[in-house]
Design a protein that fits this description.
305 residues, 3 helices, 38% strand
């Protein structure tokens, strides 16, 4: 039989070790984090997000950006308190196309951006094959056209292919301006990673030291530098839209989904995917549903401009 005092000391030591292993140092830099515990679009917007309702680019000309496309179905896997779901629908016509975009305040530039998202390769329900774009990105504003300080960094998944890819691919693109070059190509650095990506993925974007680096599930998939490096404040965006050239002719309605589990930004530091995950795990273990210490710049977000 072990001595009661020894058992007490062992228990105390075990408690200290467990607590120390779970503890993540408090970041010194400003942080933005949202675990999407909301229950309505109105509640989401109360926390600095905008759900787009304004007409315009990108997507099918004449399509509607609908607030009702945002929902909060909960997390069936119980990996977190909830998820934000975007649902976009088309019947192949502009009048029957409803796209979705949500964006945060325009106050982010250098630092590390990350989100855990679920890509869907096929509609629920309906026939697959539409040119749909499922995205996570940071952007300044599209106007004025050709602005020399224009800034945009994109993750865009095309489950049915497009943009030169015959099959599913993830594009990472860092823009110099929003205007095409004289030869008609995009004024940007871009790369594509072919392959099906149905399911959950962690996307990490580092904007630091003159480089824009992209990671898919810890794997580096892009490194851009030079004139594309972001020069002005951007907003964090999620967008689910249809390409004009890729929508099928079928008039049967079909709906596509993109889920967001969480989003994280830390200012002025280049964090690895593993460091990001530890930050998020620590916030969740502490019961933090959202945190925002990134100073507002009073700039309009691009959703409804």
């Amino acid at each position: 039989m072990r001595h009661p005092f020894l058992l007490l000391m062992m228990a105390a030591f075990s408690t200290v070790v467990r607590a120390g292993a779970a503890e993540e140092p408090e970041p010194a830099a400003p942080v933005f984090f949202d675990d999407f515990c909301d229950r309505s679009a109105a509640e989401l917007e109360a926390h600095g997000w905008t759900v787009r309702t304004a007409d315009g680019w990108p997507g099918i000309q004449g399509a509607t950006w609908r607030r009702e496309n945002v929902s909060f179905p909960g997390d069936p896997a119980r990996e977190g308190p909830g998820i934000l779901r975007m649902t976009s629908t088309t019947d192949g016509t502009p009048a029957g196309t409803f796209q979705t975009q949500v964006c945060q305040q325009r106050k982010f530039r250098e630092g590390t951006y990350a989100a855990r998202v679920r890509f869907s390769p096929a509609p629920a329900p309906g026939q697959s094959g539409d040119g749909v774009v499922e995205s996570f990105y940071a952007i300044s504003v599209l106007e004025p056209r050709g602005h020399p300080d224009y800034s945009e960094c994109d993750f865009e998944y095309l489950p049915s292919g497009g943009w030169g890819q015959k099959r599913a691919a993830l594009f990472v693109t860092t823009w110099i301006t929003s205007e095409p070059k004289p030869d008609g190509t995009n004024d940007a650095f871009s790369g594509a990673t072919p392959g099906e990506l149905a399911g959950w993925h962690v996307l990490v974007l580092q904007v630091a030291g003159g480089h824009v680096r992209y990671f898919l599930d810890r794997k580096p998939v892009g490194d851009h530098s030079g004139p594309c490096y972001p020069r002005e404040a951007m907003s964090i965006n999620f967008n689910l839209w249809f390409t004009r050239e890729g929508v099928q002719a079928s008039r049967a309605a079909r709906s596509y989904e993109e889920d967001i589990d969480w989003v994280y930004f830390e200012k002025d530091v280049a964090l690895s995917p593993d460091e990001i995950q530890r930050r998020v795990d620590a916030l969740r273990q502490a019961g933090v549903a959202r945190k925002d210490t990134v100073e507002s710049l009073g700039l309009p977000c691009p959703c409804n401009l």
